[in-house]
């Protein structure tokens, strides 16, 4: 892929991660090769080119990772027994209110975890 072209946040992140993960790098290279072959044949439309690199797929993966992290935090909070919740709001540059929900608890060390950002 051309370094001079901005491929969007999702694909740029995947390309960055592929530098450090050989399996992902092989998948990206295969997708690029298949895309070039399809482009050379003049085929239009998506056809059967499945890459699993779409924004929707990426968002689903992020959602699953988020759920796993929250499950780990929930287990740590259960083990800690005592916790506190902090809710704070602020406006972004477009004057839109955003609310952060943070949970604090102590195991061997003090933990402060961002649980959610709510618009």
Automatic annotation (TrEMBL):
Residues 1-25 form the signal peptide. It comes from the Eukaryota. The keyword Signal applies. Keywords: Signal. This is Uncharacterized protein. The lineage of its organism: Eukaryota, Metazoa, Chordata, Craniata, Vertebrata. The gene is BX936298.1.
């Amino acid at each position: 892929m051309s370094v001079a072209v901005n491929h969007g946040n999702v694909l740029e992140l995947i390309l960055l991660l592929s530098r450090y993960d050989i399996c992902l790098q092989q998948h990206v290279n295969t997708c690029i090769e298949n895309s070039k072959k399809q482009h050379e044949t003049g085929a239009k439309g998506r056809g059967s080119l499945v890459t699993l690199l779409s924004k929707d797929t990426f968002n689903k993966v992020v959602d699953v990772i988020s759920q796993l992290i929250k499950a780990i935090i929930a287990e740590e909070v259960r083990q800690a027994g005592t916790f506190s919740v902090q809710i704070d709001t602020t406006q972004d540059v477009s004057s839109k209110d955003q609310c952060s929900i943070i949970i604090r608890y102590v195991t061997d060390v003090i933990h402060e975890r961002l649980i959610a950002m709510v618009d």
